[in-house]
Task: structure prediction
Amino acid sequence: SGRKLFFFPDYMHGNPYQTMLYQQLKHRGVELVGVDSLKPLRSQEIQVEIGDVLHIHWINILTKGVEEEHFDHIFETFLDDLTYLKDKGLRLLWTVHNRYSHDLPNIAREHDFRSKMSGLVNKLIVHHPILLSEISDWLPANVPVAFLEHGSYQSWFENSLPRHEARESLGLEPTDKVVTIIGQVRPYKDLPSVIPAIAEAMSGDARLKLVVAGKVSCPTTLRMLQDLPGEQLILENRFIEDSSVQNYMNASDFVLLCYRDILTSGALFQSLTFGIPLFAIDKGSIPAYVIPGVNGYLYQSSTELMKLLQHAFFEPQHLRKQTERLMVKLPSWPK
Result:
C-alpha cells in the first residue's frame, strides 16, 4: 500500500489540530502532504499511488470568497475529482468538523453536496458519537462511520505563567472576575446574542471583566463590544500567537463558549488543556465534556448565561482545581 497521506486543506500553519492529529504518522514513515486543491493530485503533478490516503477536513475553503451562483459548479467539480482519484486507488477519509460551513448564505446547496460526498468516501469521521444526530439530515444511513476524539493541547501550548503574573500582564486585579473569549470571533460565534446579558451582569458588578483575545471579524460584534464599559473590557482585536495564549488563559476564571451552531469546539479543548472552567453553550459535543458544577456550566439562553455571570463566581478556585484534576482524563491524539 502507499505511504502518503494527503490532507485537504492544509491549515497546519494557523491551527495546531492537523499537526497534533498526524504527529505519530510521521514516526511511522508516512509522508504527509498538505494540499489546498485536488488539481495537482488529479493531474499527477503530485504522484498518487494505490493505497495512498486523502483526508478531507474543512470544506468551507471551496466556497470561501466565491459568489453563490458558482457553488454548484465547484461542488460538482470537487465530487468529480474525488471519484476520479478513488477510481485510481486513493482511499478517501472525511472528518466532519461542522454541520454546515459557518456563515454560509444557503445551506440547501451544501446539504446535497455533503450527502453525495459522504456516500463517496471510504470512511466518515466524527469526533464524538453524540454528533451523529446533528448531521443526520444529510448523512445517508449506509455510510461507514468512525469516531476519533479531538485530543488535548497539553504538549502544544506553553503553560508556565502563574495566575498573578498573567493578570498583571493584562492589567487585571487579583479580585477581578475574569471571563475570556479566546480565538477568532466570526459571526457563527453569535456573540451579539449574549453581549446584552454580559452588559447587564457588568452593570451590577464592577469587578466583572470580559477579555476578548482574538481577531473580531464580525462588525456587529465589534460594535457591540465597544459599547461595553471600557474599564470592564480588554479587547485584543488581533491574532494571538500560540506563545501568548497562556497569558489570557491563566488570567481567566472562566472561558466563554458561545456559538450559533457547533459540532466540535477547539476552544473547549484549549480551555480544558489549561484547566480553565467554562461557561459553555449547550450544543454539539460540548455537553460530552463540560460537567456542570465540576469543570464549568452549560447554558441554553442568554438569560441563563446572565445568571451564571451573576452567581457562579463564589467558588471559581474550587472549580479550577477540579478542572485541573480532570486534565489527565482529556482524550489523547491517535497513536
